[in-house]
Amino acid sequence: MEKLRQTLRVRKERAILVAAVLRSRDGGDGLAELTALAESAGAVVVDRFQQKIRTINAGTYIGKGKASQLAGRARRFTADVVIFDNDLSPGQIRELEEIVEVKVLDRSELILDIFATRAKTRQAKLQVELAQLEYTYPRLTRMWSHLDTLAGAGGATAAGAVGGIGTRGAGEQQLEIDRRLVSKRITELKRELENIDRRRIREINGRRGLFKICLVGYTNAGKSTLLNTLTDAGVPVEDRLFATLDTRTRKWTPSKGTEVLISDTVGFVKHLPHQLVASFKATLEEAVNADLLMHVVDVSNPDALKQIESVNNVLEEIGCGEKPILEVLNKVDVVTNIGNLETAQTLYPDAVCMSAKTGYGLDDLRETVTAKYKGTELLLRVASSQSNGKVQSFLRAHGRILNEQYVDSTVLIDAKLGRNQLPELRRLRPQAIEITDA
Ligand SMILES: Nc1nc2c(ncn2[C@@H]2O[C@H](COP(=O)(O)OP(=O)(O)OP(=O)(O)O)[C@@H](O)[C@H]2O)c(=O)[nH]1
Ligand SMILES: [Mg+2]
To answer: 411, 404 in Cβ contact below 8 A?
Structure first.
């Protein structure tokens, strides 16, 4: 049976999708997302199988009877692979494969596979390889042939090091060697990623002082499209899941005198494998360092509200729970069910409704971001030497001058200015700044 799982890839394979939902829980959201995931991985979905189950069967998850039904369908549809929406234990996968007689994958393995095919930069490749090894490692008791796949995905990897994979059959002893090699490779990968990370932190520190916005959101919500609309980033946009794995940062000028940095990130998905979140921490660091998160929501998706929740969960997990967030309700041009839109607007009254594709709502977005950038408006009295023209021109450009009074060689200016712009004003060295309201 080992041979079934020699490759975990699902490209072009004929797949049957399975979702088992506990009877005690209501609904579940069907197989729409798993279908999108499978198709994004390149599989051809030939059948779908949804099952309400009373309890999770320790051996086969869905129970032996249902597994036999599944076997029948696998034969009928000449399927190559069965993909579960649920996360399965290695033991469950083994038992299921024995019954259905085709390869069985779980949701996390599918997501890891998509990430492996999408990874382009060195960092992304290393991150994916690490996640795959960490997911696989505990499963090694039964499937060290899986290492084969990892070699294909990540380049010269653990399997490359194993070398004599043809010497299989040595059983436990071989397993011990594999384990040691895997854990050595994991250490190597972590070290290499730390180096890249240090470089990245230097890069991020270099941008200190600039206002940073990070686009976050469910995969396929339109983050890259929005970045392209706002800047000339030219980020590839695709109607498939996880099109973007790398961050890209561009300058954006939402309004005159306001310049910010805006970054695109990897998309989120519900039940993102924990190992992936962990190894993409560096990429998600962009979000941790942002001054403002722009949460892009595909409000035309029937599951939009659940997706918002999943994204908020991941944000919490990476330590961004307390960051200022601006919800961007995207794709309003194709909303058919107004209910989601209305609920989202009620939940997030400050949200901006827009279409990154048609440009609808862009002005609103610019205005909202500018206001966030400037912060709460303060009433100030600024004293400055008449020879220091910079203070006046700064206040004219970024705030609103209400009154000017000349006393000897000093100008007293009453002006409104955003709280976040105070540091910049201070750098121009006026004689005194008094905040006259709080
Ligand atoms: N109708 C419509 N389609 C949009 C809009 N914004 C994005 N799309 C489409 O949605 C799909 C996904 O867009 P992307 O920008 O790649 O989404 P993403 O959030 O970057 O996705 P990942 O990188 O996979 O996380 C593409 O087919 C876009 O053309 C919009 O406002 N309206
Ligand atoms: Mg993208």
So the answer is: yes
Q: Which ligand is nearest to the CA of 36?
A: 1
- For the CA of 244, the closest atom of ligand 1 is 23
CATH entry 3.40.50.11060 includes domain 2-112? yes
Q: Tell me if 249 sits within 8 A of 255, measured CB to CB.
A: no
Enumerate residues 6+ apart whose C-beta is below 8 A from 65. Answer: none
pTM of the model as a whole: 0.78
The answer to whether residue 369 scores a pLDDT higher than 90 is yes
pLDDT tens for 179-206 read 788 888 999 999 998 888 787 777 766 6
Reading the block at residue 166, the tokens are: 């043809």
Q: Whose CA is nearest to atom 9 of ligand 1?
A: 222
State the closest ligand 1 atom to the C-alpha of 334, by its place in the atom list counted from 1. Answer: 1
Quick: pLDDT tens for 411-434: 999 999 988 888 889 999 999 999
Cβ of 188 less than 6 Å from ligand 1: no
Q: d(Cα 230, Cα 224) in Å, to the nearest integer?
A: 10
The CATH code of domain 375-435 reads: 3.30.70.240
